[in-house]
User: What shape does this take?
Amino acid sequence: MKKIKENPLFARSLPLLTEQGAFNLLNAKVALFGLGGIGSYTAEALARSGIGHFELIDHDLVEPSNLNRQLCALRQTVGLPKVAVVKQRILDINPQATINIHQIFYNSECGLDFLPKDLDYIVDAIDSVQSKIDLIIQAHQNRIPIISAMGAGNKYDPTGFKVCDLFQTYNDRLAKKLRNELKKNNITQHTVVFSPEKPVLNSRETIASLAYVPAVCGLICAAKVVEDIAQIKINQ
Assistant: This one.
């Protein structure tokens, strides 16, 4: 525990996390699927919270259109793989972190065999509906804790996001699709980060997004992961 007290990552957070909580985080293995507007902020918060092992999964390169909302998107990173950029960013925060990158498009054929068997948590920030469904089903079948981000596009209000069960969501087209498909696979409970705000635009071709809306969604995803791994008890 002495090393934890000397670790600058925990200089301000240790009184809130406790030494056991910080120890849990340092020894945790977390997989992040999707490193865009939501996932990049989740990765950042988890890195700064002391997560010791990351599996980063995303097939995309950084594009100029990402500059308005993705933490990995800078002029100097345009054209680079998101997994590589986020890996370097995490290492700049915590050089002791262990990071494996997978520049792949996740689907049902991938399975989860490419990930550590002792994975502690999965963060689902995938855009593709079918990939999202496949990942959730795989996680439940393998009994791996997972949290999924719901729709953050075409919305204004970052204050509406909350952690809840998928089957309590409303006003979210993505969540509706997931509910229908997961029921078919006998999954009746699933943790998500969701906002009840109705989309202000109905375009399905180009999804509009403001910098801070997906960011807040991603940070709340990270908060839930940290709370569960560190076993933080929050007094409401």
In short: Strands lie at 29-33, 53-57, 98-102, 121-124, 146-149, 162-165, 191-194. The domain at 2-230 is CATH 3.40.50.720 (Rossmann fold). The first strand starts at residue 29 and ends at 33. The CA atoms of residues 59 and 104 lie 4 Å apart.
